[in-house]
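Exercise: predict the fold of this chain.
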Amino acid sequence: MTLKKTRRTLCVLTVLLVLSLILCEGTGNGWFLAVAAAVGIAAFVIFLLFWTCPECGRHLGRTWGGKYCPGCGAKLDL
């Protein structure tokens, strides 16, 4: 998965997580909490597995808007 696609996927999962939590609070339905937990776990796994530099493979951590890898200095295509 490319960095651009990973970033887009993480953004979509974050929106789904927030919506699920809002619906859980608003309706009191526990299913929305289960959906929020599943989406949160999926986002965390995708972040750990795919948010890496395509050149050196180092995890990018909180480098969300950076243009270069903090490890090797390669240009990131975000």
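Check your answer against the key: The two ends are 12 Å apart (CA to CA).
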